[in-house]
Amino acid sequence: MGRRPRDREGTPRPVRVGPRGGAVLGVVSLIGAAAFGWPLLASHGSAVAAHSTDAPWLFAALLPLLVAVVIATLSDTGVDAKAVAMMGMLAAAGAALRPLGAGTAGIEPMFFLMVLSGRVLGPGFGFTLGSLTMFASALLTGGVGPWMPFQMLAMGWVTMGAGLLPRPDTLRGRGELALLAAYGAVSAVAYGTVMNLQGWPYIGGLASNIAYDPHAALSTNLARFAAYCLTTSLGWDLPRAALTAVLAFTLGPAILRALRRATRRASFDASAVFEDAPPDA
């Protein structure tokens, strides 16, 4: 069997995206993009409004698919108990960090940990970790509902994206911190935007100039959605982005070193060798 890929410092990637996991991840991402974007993708004058109350529950079927991605990714790579333990530890840490800022100006410190973990441990580990962390935090905070699969998918994308950032084997120091801080800020705003798109069509009582209109043209709904984001959530998204960038830049060096050291010492790609016991004297 081949060994898992390492960066130049010798850090193994405990979870990589194999052929099966990659295929399922692609399918889930396509379905997720349609689930998020259906208000804008629906044809002008269609009968979408008649199913607007059913859509959240229909798209909640994404949850089993997300679980399938996790299982397929793990089974593709034969992840050992040490990798599962690290994933559980990081997911628990992320889930514990989320309530620290939830409800306060959109500040969510879990984002920076997800970005740093995805950078060190790769996109396969990142998507799995992001999805499981959001699932665990929803259970911890009582945030279980039809929106939870969307949160899991969006956070999986955020963490996976960190693992796809360029030069994972050569870029170190302040340059890497600046890259992670910039990505963390952009991804924090992007996460809030796509989650706005998920809930925007179902919120009643909005002003007519920002409410979703299933019979309006795409350009009209795009303008309304932009106005909706500016007036309702930007005040939450920007503090989240700023906190993520600041924490990634200030705490990043210590956490990146700890994650890389722990991953090297865990020796995820070490294979066990069994030998016959020597005969009794």
Structural notes for this entry:
The chain is mainly α. Helix content is 66%, strand content 0%. It is built from ten helices and no strands. It has helices at 19-41, 55-59, 62-77, 81-101, 110-141, 148-163, 174-199, 218-232, 234-250, 252-266. The two termini are 36 Å apart.
Fill in the keyword field for this structure.
66% helix, 0% strand, 10 helices, 281 residues, mainly alpha
Q: Give the overall shape, derived from the CA principal axes.
A: globular
Q: What percent of residues are in strands?
A: under 5%
Major sheet attributes: none
Q: Oligomerization state of this entry? A: single chain
Q: Compute the number of strand runs.
A: 0
Mean pLDDT: 79
Number of helices: 10
How far from one another are the termini?
A: 36 Å
User: What is the string of helix and strand elements?
Assistant: HHHHHHHHHH
Sheet/helix structural class: mainly alpha
Low-confidence stretches: none
Q: Helical proportion?
A: 55-70%
- Evaluate the radius of gyration: 21 Å
